[in-house]
Specification:
Layout lengths: L5 E7 L2 E7 L5 H8 L18 E4 L2 E4 L12 E3 L12 H8 L9 H14 L5 H8 L10 H14 L17 H5 L1
Helix pairs in contact: 2-5, 4-5
Length: 180
């Protein structure tokens, strides 16, 4: 190994990965270019837009601001840990149902931001959801549909009544109905 390179072991989405990389490489670049987890996007690379948000030890973090070396020994989760294209998780389903994405560039970061937020605050007020989501930039949706999606996910996770939501009628009762 070149003396300019380092060997890291990163735990990402439940698996250990050994990576040889430049010491100055950021976590987002290692995720995308070494582990080919391209669901995590890169926007500003300055910690402003939130497109690169992942979970580090269950907390949302800007992966463009973290050296990969700093992530050793931490538990990393990316958007690939949520659902699959065939089987979205509940948060992804609500983003889809509420039209919480348009171009989709901000979406992986928004999903991981919301996932971390709901783990910490399972029953948030709408104001708390708005404040959380304001951390990341979206230039397409106007944010309201993202807030709706996060609110409905919270209600679904608590099996709470979602009838006030204009999309309630579209919430599938089970997978069979969803696939019908
Ligand atoms: S790319 Fe990391 S905050 Fe914008
Ligand atoms: S959906 Fe396009 S930036 Fe958010």
């Amino acid at each position: 190994m070149s003396e300019n390179k380092q060997l890291l072991t990163l735990q990402v989405n439940g698996e250990d990965h050994e990576v040889i990389c430049d010491p100055r490489m950021t976590l987002v670049d290692v995720l995308r270019h070494e582990l080919f987890l391209t669901g995590t996007h890169v926007g500003c690379e300055h910690g402003v837009c939130g497109a690169c948000t992942v979970l580090v030890d269950d907390k949302p973090a800007r992966a463009c601001l973290i050296f990969a070396a700093q992530a050793e020994g931490r538990v990393i989760r990316t958007v690939e840990s949520l659902g699959t294209p065939e089987e979205l998780n509940d948060l992804q389903e609500e983003f889809s149902r509420h039209h919480g994405l348009q171009c989709g560039f901000c979406t992986p970061g928004m999903l991981m931001l919301a996932e971390g937020f709901l783990a910490e605050e399972p029953n948030p007020s709408r104001e708390q959801v708005r404040e959380c989501i304001s951390a990341n930039l979206c230039r397409c949706t106007g944010y309201q549909t993202i807030v709706d999606a996060v609110e409905c996910t919270s209600k679904r996770r608590q099996s709470a009544d979602c009838s006030g939501c204009s999309f309630a009628a579209a919430v599938p009762q089970n997978k069979e109905e969803n696939q019908a």
